[in-house]
Amino acid sequence: MRAFRPPGGAPRGEDATSAPVVSNIAMTPAVLTVSSKNYSSWCLRGWLACKLAGLDFVEEMVSLEDPSARAELLLLSPSFLVPCLTHDGAKVWDTLAIGEYLAELKPEAGLLPADRPARAHCRAICGEMHSGFFNLRSALPMNLKARHPGYKVWAGAQADIDRIVALWTECLAMYGGPYLFGRELTLADAMYAPVVTRFLTYDVALNRECAAYCRAIMKWPAMIEWIEDAKAEPSELEELDMEF
Ligand SMILES: N[C@@H](CCC(=O)N[C@@H](CS)C(=O)NCC(=O)O)C(=O)O
After folding, report:
1. Which atom of ligand 1 is nearest to the CA of 73?
2. How far is the CA of 33 from the centre of ligand 1 (A)?
3. Of 95, 98, 100, 155, whose CA–CA distance to 129 is shortest?
4. In the chain, which end has fewer C-beta atoms inside a 10 angstrom radius, N or C?
5. How far is CA 151 from CA 7, 156, 193, 200, 235, in A?
6. What's the CA-to-centroid distance between 241 and ligand 1, angstroms?
7. Among 136, 123, 57, which residue's Cα sits nearest to residue 90?
8. How close is the Cα of 104 to the center of ligand 1, in Å?
9. d(CA 103, CA 156)
10. pLDDT, tens only, 65-118
11. What is the C-alpha separation between 167 and 155, in angstroms, rounded?
């Protein structure tokens, strides 16, 4: 595990004229705590959202199997879950909340579409991912190193796949692609990126539009970077029967 930094960084604003305080703030980057890059789909989402926002951040990698790391994580993230973003006195330990925090912090980055109905649509499909698709998430866990050609998907997971294909197809038709909300990546693409990798890992057949969308996401430089790191990770879980 890499060392933790104290949450929040230097106190600010006590003496606005003090040069050392100002330079200290500038030197304190945001910290995103993540776990396995190969298995942790929520960490991938949070990390992509930070990249999309253009946030200056450092990664802290924790092993959730290490008891001392878990104890430290509990101090940092009351829910015991990662990803957790620590930035400028704020501690955010839920992926959707991280996305909303970043959208507020960096409105110019366009994590949420500018158009109000599109923004509402984007929030709705992000929420649907965050709170749903349990069958897909448990039956087809993210594993970036794996490939399962001809994988047999059971009916419950297929219903989730059908719903995702329907909502992607609708977005791609409404906003013109190549991303879910048009020409620019948004939080929705970060939320569904681990679904793209699952579809590739488990050889899920897709319509032409959705297959093109998957290709576009796999070309996103941040995705390429994360996947390279994931493939270089030494640890492998022998059995994985639920989303991690
Ligand atoms: N709803 C949470 C889910 C986060 C989550 O389940 N994270 C997993 C890793 S992907 C975790 O921290 N699990 C804790 C553990 O395995 O003990 C979010 O949106 O961030």
Report:
1. 12
2. 11
3. 95
4. N
5. 43, 14, 20, 11, 24
6. 15
7. 57
8. 23
9. 34
10. 777 777 777 787 777 789 999 999 999 999 999 999 999 999 999 999 999 999
11. 19
